[in-house]
Amino acid sequence: MKSQPAATSVLRPVATREQARPSAPKSIDFPIDNFPAELIHMICAYLKPTELANLRLVSRLVAPISLQYMIPEVHLILAKDSFEQLTALAEHPLASKYVTSFFFEADKLGMFPRTTWERLVASPQYLAQGEELRIRDHPCNHPTERSLRTFLREVNKFHASPRHQYTEELMDHAYGKYNDLTHFQHDLQEAAVQEKKVGEAMKKFPLLKELTLSTRCCTRSRTSGLRKEFEPAFCTYYEFDYPLNTKLEPLGLQQMRSLLLGAYHAGLKVEVLHCGAVSWRILLQDTETLARMRNSVSNVKDLRLEFATSLMDDDESVEACYSYLKGGRLKDFITAAPNLEHLDIGFHIYSRPTWPTHLKHIVGSHHWPTLKTVKFKSIGTSEDDLVSFCSLHASTLKCLHLTSIGLVEGNWFSAFTRMRKILTLDAMVLWGRLGSLDEGLDLEMDTEEVCPGLKKRIEAYFLGPCASDELSLDEFLERMS
If DSSP codes are grouped into helix, strand and coil, which group holds residue 395? Predict the structure, then answer.
């Protein structure tokens, strides 16, 4: 048997396929790039700042639009960190160009020695419990003896409980923070320092149109940002305007002055100005400064000013306010805005025989051709002056608010009847005590004991077209009843 030859391995060539080189990725347009700009604006309006920050990274088209909605408002507090943030934002080459609103929350902490500060310190839980009891005031409208005893026990227990349980170390640290805040705020009382910081920043905000100053929760409630800034100091007591203490700066004066002069030097065309509560002494400026302040409001369409006389509303302060404003300084300031559409002027004061000013010292015989909404609070007027103001603006005025107004001459029923014959209003709001030489009208909800529903009936009297049937307010109320 013949042996088989050994098998030889034959290597066959294997066809190899050369690996293709990766081709350049095709450019794919992100769908939002094809959206019209108006639609992107609508999307941005519904997003939170954190979401807008992410959206800015999507495309070059979206980035500048979303930026407009991220920081539309500057929020300034009387704290060092807040002023540093203001400077940083002003120096940002893009974000600064989209700021449209400046909110100055000007509440200041009161300056107390250590012993007084320690007596005022209270934990958030203690303050919350006290606020709950204050809101309740009493168990119900008609409490039983048992429910009243229960409520009084809760009150006594609350007052006997410790205000806080902070350690000595925490108290020392908090008092250090308190000192830092109050000393910084004290240094800012130097007008030139504050005006320089605010003015330099406002020059970098070319689109700024709205200025808001708030103290005592007037134009806005105290924000979480303010509370967060002051919380480490363990103090919730704020400094108020009290002229009997010459060491205290008049409430909001330097802050409002900084805003107005900053707008003037920046050449801004401010359209909205809301300030309150601010001391009436803001108008005690030299001629040049007042002229600049008047210039800064020349384009304002929406003006709201709430003035404070003093913390105690003593007769001396009110009379001083009246005597000065009688010279026309407030009228000169307000009439510097010829295109007003909304005017809101008020004073923080209780009803008294001496009013801080009269209507004629606020508006005189000036006519605003586009005035739509008017709100007056805690001022005096005569029947003729009030009717004359309404007559001047009858063609445009649509909304009128009167709160705690003192009629120094005339009668309210006669005034309302005359006003009704010349006005066509969409809204009429009355509130507080409308004082007069006779009995006057008390229109607060809780004091309508003589004639329940009188407030709503008088307001209804003004709604609709001008009366052509010569129906007086007395006749209208009789018909309604």
Answer: coil
